[in-house]
Amino acid sequence: MLKIWGRLSSVNVQKVVWAVRELALPHTLTQVGGQYGGLDTPEYGKMNPNRKVPVIDDGGLVLWESNAIVRYLAARYGEGSLWPTDVALRAHADRWMDWTATEWQPAIAPAFLGLVRTPEAQRDAAAIEASARKANALALMLEDALQQREFIAGAHLTMGDVVLGCVAHRWLGTPIERPATPALSAWYRRLMMRPATQGVLTLPLA
């Protein structure tokens, strides 16, 4: 059985758990990190020297880095679904996964951390404002990409939507002003209607 270590308040753990649920893989989730602790143990350090979440163990294959985990699970268990068989469609999904990791997720992080996880008296207003402005500009890129399509790589959900969707959930849940994004919002509603997101993206942001 697939084993996962992490906490569902982590956007990176959400990616993995959602993918696992889309693929209907039997799994266990051990809560570590944040209020659960456990990242500083020798045992955890052997699995992930970065001492971050998530980590998986799939029959002895230990893997860390959330996007790498999602790609692995999609390739091994989701060919034709999360892992498109068409190489061009897979490249589109892959590109947006990398864009999320290098652009959108880092952009929204300061605003999310400042407004959701930091007491008001300790917030850096300038950093929050800059973060929101950058994240909003990037969201408009995604809005443009989602014009006239159901999902990021076309007509079907792929690994790209899973990774993008988790960060979209964080962007939409952070209390900032946002531009109108009708295509993005419609896509997000489609994601939230999927049974696999229930109990993952339906939890309060924390």
UniProtKB/TrEMBL annotation:
<dbReference type="InterPro" id="IPR010987">
    <property type="entry name" value="Glutathione-S-Trfase_C-like"/>
</dbReference>
<feature type="domain" description="GST C-terminal">
    <location>
        <begin position="86"/>
        <end position="206"/>
    </location>
</feature>
<feature type="domain" description="GST N-terminal">
    <location>
        <begin position="1"/>
        <end position="81"/>
    </location>
</feature>
<dbReference type="GO" id="GO:0016740">
    <property type="term" value="F:transferase activity"/>
</dbReference>
<protein>
    <submittedName>
        <fullName>Glutathione S-transferase</fullName>
    </submittedName>
</protein>
<dbReference type="InterPro" id="IPR036282">
    <property type="entry name" value="Glutathione-S-Trfase_C_sf"/>
</dbReference>
<keyword id="KW-0808">Transferase</keyword>
<dbReference type="InterPro" id="IPR004045">
    <property type="entry name" value="Glutathione_S-Trfase_N"/>
</dbReference>
<dbReference type="Pfam" id="PF13410">
    <property type="entry name" value="GST_C_2"/>
</dbReference>
<dbReference type="InterPro" id="IPR036249">
    <property type="entry name" value="Thioredoxin-like_sf"/>
</dbReference>
<dbReference type="Pfam" id="PF13409">
    <property type="entry name" value="GST_N_2"/>
</dbReference>
<comment type="similarity">
    <text>Belongs to the GST superfamily.</text>
</comment>
<dbReference type="InterPro" id="IPR040079">
    <property type="entry name" value="Glutathione_S-Trfase"/>
</dbReference>
